[in-house]
Amino acid sequence: MIPKRKNRSAQTSRYSSRVFGNSPFRRSISTERRVSSGRTPLHALELSADLDGRDGSNRARGHSQIAAHDDLNAVRAWLARVADKKTTFENYRKEAERLLLWAIVQLGKPLSSLTHEDLQLFRQFLKDPLPHARWVADGGRKYPRHDPRWRRFYRTLRPSSQYQAMVIINALFAWLVEAGYLAGNPLSLSRQRIRRSKPRITRYLDHELWHEVKLHIDSLPKDTPRERERYLRARWLFTLFYLGGLRISEVGGNTMGSFFCRRDADGHERWWLDVLGKGDKEGLVPSSAEMMMELGRYRRERGLSALPSRHEDTPLVLPLGKSMQPLPRSALHTIVKAIFAGAAERLRLRGDGFAAQADLLEQASALWLRHTAGSHMADGGADLRTVRDNLRHASLTSTNIYLHTPDEERHRETVEKHRIEW
């Protein structure tokens, strides 16, 4: 076994444990290991010189701007740029791993030897990762990366996810070319289809289904202190999503100290939530009396004062018990999905006539709540500029998708208000 080379850059070494784990990359690999490696994360993969990319056919031969001498360290350098952005980092790592493992296992080629034709094959692979036993987790479950049941896929990717995967991979290749590591981007030859926005958001809850969700939350048990804390946490969490229109990453990444009060020109005190959101963009979310009331109720249940102090570091949503640590995104996701599942079960108990609504609720996620917030604001007659700013959209184009006019209402209003009057 050849020992690891010692000329790895300080920067890539710094991030290596986070990017691919702590296990060393050995330089020997058996045929059997190569076949089974698709079932393991890259930190457990053993690569030989013909697969690590040091002599890849697409390697640039001039001066490189990064110190990486093989594909794994080149990808580490690319990921290191977003190491402090958890969601972005995990999405980038996921797609890089998929491509690297597929290239090694399916083609027996390093990333730096992939051609335009190889990437077209990979595009087809994303639609249906075969063989499933190697690539797709049983039962559609997400297992921890250290679990032997872990796979790089846990379900069939939607077309939008396939598109996003290729966008990320294109960004990876483009960066490696710019860094002087690769000679060219094999994806730059592809015809990139412009993804057109849907005319209307479909993943949202209408007023009737949203009412069912609130009924289910209010029906949660409250007899013991722990039950009451769980109930008030769910109520507060869904208040944040609906009244604030927050993303799940914004709920997990901001604190109660981001609430502040200021007087307007007329002397009225108004509360705001200062949000650090997607792309590290700052935004101000109006905090209504309803939101502040729910915040106070939740804080008192946790033994805190009704109103937070400025710059207080208490997370927006807390674990049950005494912990004051922020809940990870996965835990927030689990809470939201459990509420939707409970509301769906209540609907099913009413009979077969509610099955379709129950099925829709079971598909819902935290993102649906953000879409629901925008849709209901628009339905309620809020100015689209208000909806845009509350959801922190860059333009009204992004906000127009929240306009939902039922076809019958649209027809009636057109007949009544759009006349030629000959």
TrEMBL record:
It is found in: Cytoplasm. PROSITE patterns: CB (PS51900), TYR_RECOMBINASE (PS51898). Pfam families: Phage_integrase. The keyword Cell division applies. Its main location: cytoplasm. The keyword Cytoplasm applies. InterPro entries: CB (IPR044068), DNA_brk_join_enz (IPR011010), Integrase-like_cat_sf (IPR013762), Integrase_catalytic (IPR002104), Integrase_recombinase_N (IPR010998), Tyrosine_recombinase_XerCD (IPR050090). Keywords: Cell cycle, Cell division, Chromosome partition, Cytoplasm, DNA integration, DNA recombination, DNA-binding. PANTHER family: PHAGE INTEGRASE-RELATED, TYROSINE RECOMBINASE XERC. GO terms for biological process: cell division; chromosome segregation; DNA integration; DNA recombination. One of its GO terms (molecular function) is DNA binding. This is Site-specific recombinase XerD. Residues 69-177 form the Core-binding (CB) domain. GO terms for cellular component: cytoplasm. SUPFAM superfamilies: DNA breaking-rejoining enzymes. Residues 200-416 form the Tyr recombinase domain.
